[in-house]
């Protein structure tokens, strides 16, 4: 999560290497998809979106997606800690509760 403090930018999404066809009828990919391309899967306004990533940008996109994933993992850790803290505090309240009789 500390990455959020020092990173210039992050990128929400998932980066995948996919094999695809080019559409040329005489290409070998017409039989079996074989052209590799990096694709960034994201969503905008609730709609899924896939973008082909340029070769020159692959390293940058990989790094920004990794920072996003680290921040998400940090957030999950904080949420789990918060849940545990709430559980402990409720336990203390229950232990110290002295009913009026």
Report on this model:
This protein is of the alpha+beta class. The chain is 43% helix and 24% strand. The chain contains two helices and three strands; from the N terminus they run H-E-E-E-H. The chain has a three-stranded antiparallel β-sheet with strand order 1-2-3, with helices on one face.
The neighbouring-strand order within the major sheet is 1-2-3
Q: Approximately what portion of the residues adopt beta-strand conformation?
A: 15-25%
Number of helices, where a helix is a run of at least 4 consecutive DSSP H or I residues: 2
CA-atom Rg in angstroms = 24 Å
Largest sheet: 3 strands, antiparallel
Number of strands: 3
Structural class: alpha+beta
Element order: H for helix, E for strand: HEEEH
Mean pLDDT comes to 88
| Residues in helix, % | 40-55%
Overall morphology: elongated
The domain count comes to 1
End-to-end Cα distance, whole Å, is 49 Å
Low-confidence stretches: none
Tags for this model:
101 residues; single chain; 43% helix; alpha+beta; 2 helices; 3 strands; 3-stranded antiparallel beta sheet
Secondary-structure map:
Layout: H1 3-6, E1 14-20, E2 35-44, E3 47-53, H2 58-96
Antiparallel strand pairs: 1-2, 2-3
In short:
With 101 residues, the protein is α+β, with helices and mostly antiparallel strands. Helices cover 43% and strands 24% of the residues. It has one domain (3-96).
